[in-house]
Amino acid sequence: MSDNKFYLSKERLAELENEYRELVVEKRKEVAEKLKKAKEYGDLSENSEYTEAKDEQMAVEKRISELELILKNYEVIKKTGKKDSVEIGSRVSLERKDGKKFTYTIVGSQEANPDEGKISNESIVGKAILGKKEKDEVEVETLNGKTSYKILSLE
What we know:
alpha/beta; Helix Hairpins; Chitinase A, domain 3
């Protein structure tokens, strides 16, 4: 990530904070209890419960680390009304050169979901249109070759 910031809506920030709290307060205890019980079964080299609990512990700690990084380096996306150029939080209507139209909201990578019309500021199209204005045309290099888009409107 170029500027080491995670761009989040207020709603997504709350979801991540809740997930973090749940993992640290509840899930860590739950996994520690599983490990304790598994150790009581004896020989750890052939103890599948212990192996599963260790794997779960690693996954939980990895997610906690990811969330800590995000929660230390986030910026809340501000909705500022009409914008002159595309920025994170903008809702943009595009027309591809073949006439197909798309409407996307530019979000941070943690919220991207193209099926819901949310594309990341780090995606190919997202990067290409950031800073552009209504009526601008942009060319995007995709896996299928170059594609041109015209920015029809911007909110």
